[in-house]
Amino acid sequence: MADAALFLSDLALGVLLGCVFAVIAHGLNLIWGVAKVVNVAHGEFIMLGAYGAYFLNLWFGFNPLLSIPFDAAIGLGVGVLFYFGFLHRELRGKESMDLQSEMVTLVSTFGLSLVLINTAQKLWTPDNVGIPWSPGYVVFGPVQLPLGGLYVAIVSVSIIALSHVFLSKTYLGNAIRAHSQDIPAAQLVGINPTITASIGTAVGFGITMVGGALLTVWLPTGIFPAMGNLYAPISFVIVVLGGPGKMWGSLVGGLTLGVIINVGQLFLGNNLSLAEAAAFLILIPVLLLRPEGILR
Amino acid sequence: MLQLEGIDAGYAGTQVLWDVALEAKQGAMTVIVGPNGAGKSTVLKVINGLLRPTRGKVLFQGNDITRRPAHERTEAGISSCPEGRRLFPQLTVEANLRLGAYAKRARGSADETLEYVYRLFPRLRERAHLKTIRLSGGEQQMVGIGRALMAKPLLLILDEPSLGLAPKTVSEIFQKVRELREGGLTLLLVEQNAYQALRIADFGYVMQEGRIVNAGPPDRLLDLEDLRKAYFAIP
Ligand SMILES: Nc1ncnc2c1ncn2[C@@H]1O[C@H](COP(=O)(O)OP(=O)(O)OP(=O)(O)O)[C@@H](O)[C@H]1O
Ligand SMILES: [Mg+2]
Questions:
Q1: Where are the domains of chain B?
Q2: Is B3 in the pocket of ligand 1 (CB under 6 A)?
Q3: In B, which residues are within 8 Å of A191 by CB distance?
Q4: What SS3 state is found at A296?
Q5: Would A189 be classed as within a structural domain?
């Protein structure tokens, strides 16, 4: 009986955690789709988002939810810089990434990732920090849920829904989707590819950094410069599971991973890396059976 | 309305077009015919801005647009349905069409133009909320032409609208193209289906191996003995 309750609450926690994973993966998915680049430094932008929330808390006493607009604004700015610094030269005037450009962006984002980790270690030390914020618990039968996690899950789902509305109901959003599906066709209907690619990348970074801020609720002492190494792989698995370019795929993939990792740790003895390995294992059959992701 | 002067162009150092000159007159339908690989689509890319020529000029309404990027040309009134249509596969028919009106000159009247496109192709209204990958080839071609029309073009460019379609659908598409021409639209059409295309055209160009090798009114081109043999496949 106690075990069943434990399982249930791990399941529920997994769902809540999965919502945050979904946001982080959603950012990656957008960048991948619109900029055609696999951002190897993805995890480091999650880390920056988390530190953003940490310092806003340290200096101004903001809780992680309050830091969202600030992280989003920083993320948008960073995204624009990233686009013009790393991608514009490689993407300009091309229908798609060629092998050469793909290699260039892989190597340069890999370099960026190392630079960011090392700079963060210099500036903020390699030690773990965390945000003391615990708004209490809510109890559903045998399951006790942290309110912080619940709020963050609601915000996460709202962010994904909001970006869905932006991408499907506005001219600019539709142009970004058009760009990610066919660049020359997008140009032919009058879309300026530099605008869609840079704004799409910026929104992707904004969402990624906000995801980093939201994640801190689950990391009482888990903010540190190399934390990206734990969460970037999860994002990649989610994007592949949910299907690259599919917005709701991020949510479904995120929930799946949240549950697998949380319940996995129950059986694998609280070991995040081991649970992650399990997540990668389930990816293999999915890739074999449905290379386009679990959603139709 | 549109002139090409002495255009050389190519891909990654391989020259494909040699000294191409042509004109599309206001209110007329101009057709470019020629065998596979002649460079017809490449000419269209030079016109719509997807490819920069290495030499020569592109003039639209008297303005030199050779260096203008593709999206600005759409804004100026050149609208294309490219080879293979290139729809946005994951978007619905209606989303594809509405994106056609992305240019500022067309956005304000998108609702009316959409209604016009649906009257031209009633089948698209029924399919409005399907993703375009779910459509038949003929329906996809209609979306392609419709999307190009949504930009309220002054010059409409169609690259092989009949490609890969059943004969009955081909006639249907040609009928619509003729209607557009009768409505006063300026058209530039590329077709391998040379016979059918020349029959509804006002002026024709014949391309071969990257050069314009013949030009004239359609009846004269249709009469040329060697062209008949070469690829009109008519006795
Ligand atoms: N993107 C490209 N990269 C490299 N070469 C290309 C490219 N597109 C076309 N070519 C080459 O340019 C030449 C002309 O091609 P183009 O597509 O313009 O011919 P076309 O007359 O439209 O032929 P088709 O009737 O088959 O459509 C061909 O030799 C082709 O192989
Ligand atoms: Mg062609």
A1: 1-77+154-235, 87-152
A2: no
A3: 71, 99, 102
A4: coil
A5: no
